[in-house]
Design goal:
Structural class: alpha/beta
Number of helices: 11
CATH topology of the largest domain: Aspartate Aminotransferase, domain 2
Strand content: 5-15%
Largest sheet: 7 strands, mixed
Number of strands: 12
Oligomer: single chain
Length: 379
């Protein structure tokens, strides 16, 4: 059976060039980057080279980037770190209602400690409007968080406008850029971001490594204690192979980005048009134009999403309902509920995301198989 992977928003395969860059750091150049001897110095040089490469990729300075274990840690570091360092100024946070749980759950935890969060609802296309963010801000606001693009429905947010407003008012601005880094141009200055999170495995790098951009002058308390690594903000022996792999993945993405945006947009549009033409009672979720080039997200009336996924998997096709981090949850997606979908449509969702090696033939096979599955499940 031909197996087809259409779940690149969940994770991506490691690019062969990335694997080749990583391999020496598991046996030859294996030193601890904090050690003073030659093995450690060699690892430290590789780490700082990777930091410079990654910083350049997002328009930052090298000393504004710290390495983490992934975007969940980066987002936790940003939310808790800002709250801890600025609690003397205020206890209010503004966030979009469609943030990833790695942003929302730390905020829920802070609420139990006396903080307040105002959640801003998007329109029915999943777009957050800057004026709604502005209206939610108070004199006590110490953080604004709006993701660059939805990990579920793919809508790209006007974060630069939100960031400009936050900058005017002197409020730190967090951008979760996990779904955009490596897929569309990301520049921290253009986005007016004070903090920006990313994860290597979303753009053909290894799992278990991510980064947090912290604009110089932004005060963030450390989350991990125990050492002085990462400018004292992230105590732990650095993952040198991971950092090297993430940097190499960024280099490959930089070189291929224009071509991949064009190719994946074409496949995405073929997917969208094919599903809407061949299947009745289906809705495309997210903004039609302002969306990630690789993301197509649908809701099917009268369909149970998990049954649809299992049926596709039996045909060798991997897709998802939404975030892999909450795939075991019994509640309907908070993102789909926020854009106004009822429970039936929220439970009947399907996210299809193409990637670097997805072919038109694979998309066409998906389009050939899907209508029959939907028809059978609706009986």
């Amino acid at each position: 059976m031909q197996k087809i992977y259409l779940d690149h928003a969940s994770t991506t395969p490691v690019d062969p060039a990335v694997w080749e860059a990583i391999r020496p750091f598991f046996n030859g150049t294996f030193g601890n980057a904090s050690s003073p001897h030659s093995f450690g110095r060699e690892a430290a040089r590789a780490l700082e080279d990777a930091r410079q490469t990654l910083a350049s990729f997002i328009g930052a300075k090298a000393d504004e980037v710290i390495f983490t274990s992934g975007a969940t840690e980066s987002n936790n570091q940003a939310v808790y770190g800002i709250a801890q360092s600025l609690k003397h100024k205020g206890n209010h946070i503004v966030a979009s209602r469609i943030e990833h749980h790695s942003v929302l759950r730390p905020m829920e935890s802070l609420c139990r400690d006396g903080f307040k969060v105002t959640y801003v609802t998007p329109d029915d296309a999943g777009i957050i409007h800057p004026d709604d963010i502005r209206k939610a801000v108070t004199k006590e606001t110490i953080l604004i968080a709006v993701m660059h693009a939805s990990n579920e429905i793919g809508s790209i947010q006007p974060v630069s406008l939100v960031g400009a407003m936050a900058r005017e008012q002197g409020i730190p601005f967090l951008v979760d850029a996990v779904q955009t880094v490596g897929h569309v141009p990301v520049d921290v200055t253009a986005l007016n971001a004070d903090l920006l999170s990313l994860s290597a495995h979303k753009f053909y790098g290894p799992k278990g490594v991510g980064a947090l951009y912290i604009r110089k002058g932004t005060k963030v308390a450390s989350l991990f204690k125990g050492g002085d690594q990462e400018r004292g903000l992230r105590a732990s022996t650095q993952n040198v192979p991971g950092a090297v792999g993430m940097a190499r993945a960024a280099e490959v993405c930089r070189r291929n980005m224009d071509e991949e945006i064009a190719g994946q947009t074409q496949l995405r549009d073929r997917l969208v048009e094919g599903v809407l033409q061949r299947v009745e009672d289906v809705k495309l979720n997210g903004h039609r134009q302002s969306r990630l080039p690789n993301n197509a997200h649908f809701s099917f009336k009268g369909i149970e999403g998990e049954a649809l996924l299992m049926s596709l998997d039996m045909e060798g096709i991997a897709a998802s309902m939404g975030s892999a981090c909450t795939s075991g949850a019994m509640e309907p997606s908070h993102v789909l509920k926020a854009i106004g979908l009822d429970d039936e449509l929220a439970y009947g969702s399907l996210r299809v995301t193409v990637g670097r090696w997805t072919t038109q033939a694979e998309v066409d096979r998906f389009l050939d198989i899907l209508p029959g599955i939907v028809s059978r499940l609706r009986i």
